[in-house]
Amino acid sequence: MNRKASKVITSLLLLALLLSPVAILTTCRGSPARNIEDVSPGDWFYRYVVAGLRFGIIVNEGGRRFRLEPDEDITLGEFVTMLGRLHEYGHGTIGTPGDSPDYERYFEWAVERRIISTHLDWDGLTPDVPINREKKAVIVFWYIDVFDLHDYFHHMYAMGMISYGDEREISPWAFGQVMRLSSMLMVTARYGGAFKPQDPVTRTDALQTIIQIGSAVYDLIYPLR
After folding, report:
1. Which residue range(s) make up the domain with 191?
2. pLDDT per residue over 23-62, tens digit each?
3. For an engineered disulfide with 214, which of 119, 187, 201, 220 has Cβ 3.0 to 4.6 Å away?
4. ∠191-133-199 over CA atoms, to 5°?
5. Does residue 89 register a pLDDT over 90?
């Protein structure tokens, strides 16, 4: 089956995603964000939360209210779990659910596929360590590269040279990947043209990135409402 046909078929599948340290995921009816205490339609990340709920990346189980905690820093294990569950949308289950906490099997998958790598600066590769912006960029780049997904992002390529005012602060092991993703408009400048490579990644930052990948590869549409 060619990639285009596979993409059409996978876009019709229901997403059963993410039992993670962030939230328990199921589907919900009506307004997707109605039971989240700390999200409102005026928030910049609202449409990503709506998409995350609709496609199972975050879900309100049983209609109960829960807190997304949008400004909380996300850990390496949480982010890799989100990425792994997104990958399952088009490629089948990773590992054996139930044998261990979900983040462990997704973490092992990411290490085995070299989406995260032991020769880089990963603070001992512990899942509970918060990640920063350059680490998130490297994870995303290697996910796209390992599974040969670059063609899905061609329409996003910038026309001119991308540069940041703080490029020297990007770690040497991350520099190439950050700049490649910058040309694909998958990582952007912050605070007056700086990349802020050492800034932590919040749960909403991570959710935005996951939905952007899903939108490009799996046709996940993120609505404004």
Report:
1. 149-199
2. 323 233 345 555 567 778 888 888 888 887 777 677 565 5
3. 220
4. 55
5. no
What is the rounded distance in angstroms from the CA atom of residue 162 to the CA atom of residue 174?
16
Task: Select the more confidently predicted residue: 132 or 185.
Answer: 132
Per-residue model confidence as pLDDT tens digits over 171-224: 998 999 999 888 887 888 887 889 999 999 999 899 999 999 988 888 776 654
Note whether 189 and 210 are same-domain residues.
no
Residue 173: Cβ within 10 Å count:
15
- Count Cβ neighbours within 10 Å for each residue of 82-101 and write b for 16 or more, e otherwise: bbbbbbbbbeeebbeeeeee
- 174 part of a folded domain: yes
Question: Quick one: DSSP state of residue 59?
Answer: -
Same domain, 24 and 90: yes
Tell me, yes or no, whether 82 and 185 share the same domain: no
In angstroms, rounded to a whole number, what is the distance separating the alpha carbons of residues 95 and 111? Answer: 13
185-187-192 Cα angle (round to 5): 100
Q: How far apart are CA 164 and CA 150, in angstroms?
A: 23
- What's the domain count of the chain? 2
Q: Do 104 and 208 fall into the same domain?
A: yes
Q: Tokens in use for 51?
A: 């998409």
Examine the domain organization and report whether 103 and 176 are in the same domain. Answer: no
| Nearest to 90, CA basis, from 225, 216, 224, 207 | 216
Q: Does one domain contain both 160 and 86?
A: no
